[in-house]
Design goal:
The structure holds two protein chains of two kinds. By secondary structure, chain A is mainly β. Chain A is 0% helix and 50% strand. In chain A, the strands form two sheets. In chain A, strands 2, 4, 5, 6, 9, 10 and 11 form a seven-stranded mixed β-sheet that branches. In chain A, a hairpin with a 5-residue loop joins strand 4 and strand 5. The radius of gyration of chain A is 13 Å and the shape is globular. Chain A starts with a strand and ends with a strand. Chain B contains no helices and eleven strands. In chain B, the strands form two sheets. In chain B, strands 2, 4, 5, 9, 10 and 11 form a six-stranded mixed β-sheet that branches. In chain B, a hairpin with a 7-residue loop joins strand 9 and strand 10. The chains are: A mainly beta, B mainly beta.
Chain lengths: 114, 113
């Protein structure tokens, strides 16, 4: 069964460093999302991406965050200068079309900022 | 602003009995509701969904009920099994430009053997 894959599974970084989290969505999916979950809290929407551009972003997704689809398969989330409060699980998700109800999630990347 | 709320952070049920997980929402523009199951260190896995035009959807041991007038939905699992032990998230599709999902805070279900 096709699945969304994410790398790395866990990254530890120093505050102020740049981090890139990578995702390979399901191949025929067109809509891509990043969510995060701070430990013990709800899964929060960060950004949605379609047709090589951001279609919606949350208040969390400030200038320190960026996304891109550099090669038609990978979908990346970059945090330019990490802060302690960026420590969370980051989930990539995709869906084939906008009318689909379900989002397919990857297993997540745990980011720990020291 | 919590648009999707799960007021019970945890629930403990005996194996074989019914588990009922509840979810409330505030936005009447939500057009589709989903339940996801999540194990530690894994991503959310889709379980079952319901359109806002229906009031019930059943899939095997899982049934979701939607009460639009009360802005309330529930997930029934019967019979509950130990393998059902996980965090269950209620999610709502916001019907906006990107149809993003908005999640509740989750309910940790523990099914005791």
């Amino acid at each position: 069964e096709p699945e969304v894959t994410q790398t790395p599974s866990h990254q530890v970084t120093q505050m102020g460093q740049e981090v890139i989290l990578r995702c390979v969505p399901i191949s025929n999916h067109l809509y891509f999302y990043w969510y995060r979950q701070i430990l013990g809290q709800k899964v929060e929407f960060l950004v949605s991406f379609y047709n090589n551009e951001i279609s919606e972003k949350s208040e969390i997704f400030d200038d320190q965050f960026s996304v891109e689809r550099p090669d038609g398969s990978n979908f990346t989330l970059k945090i330019r200068s990490t802060k302690l409060e960026d420590s969370a699980m980051y989930f990539c998700a995709s869906r084939p079309n906008l009318s689909a109800g379900e989002l397919f999630f990857g297993e997540g990347s745990r980011l720990t900022v020291l | 602003d919590q648009q999707v709320k799960q007021n019970s952070p945890s629930l403990s049920v005996q194996e074989g009995r019914i588990s009922i997980l509840n979810c409330d929402y505030t936005n009447s523009m939500f057009d589709y509701f989903l339940w996801y199951k999540k194990y530690p260190a894994e991503g959310p896995t889709f379980l079952i969904s319901i359109s806002s035009i229906k009031d019930k959807n059943e899939d095997g041991r899982f049934t979701v009920f939607l009460n639009k007038s009360a802005k309330h939905l529930s997930l029934h699992i019967v019979p509950s099994q130990p393998g059902d032990s996980a965090v269950y998230f209620c999610a709502a599709r916001d019907g906006g430009a990107t149809n993003k999902l908005i999640f509740g805070t989750g309910t940790l279900l523990a099914v005791q053997p």
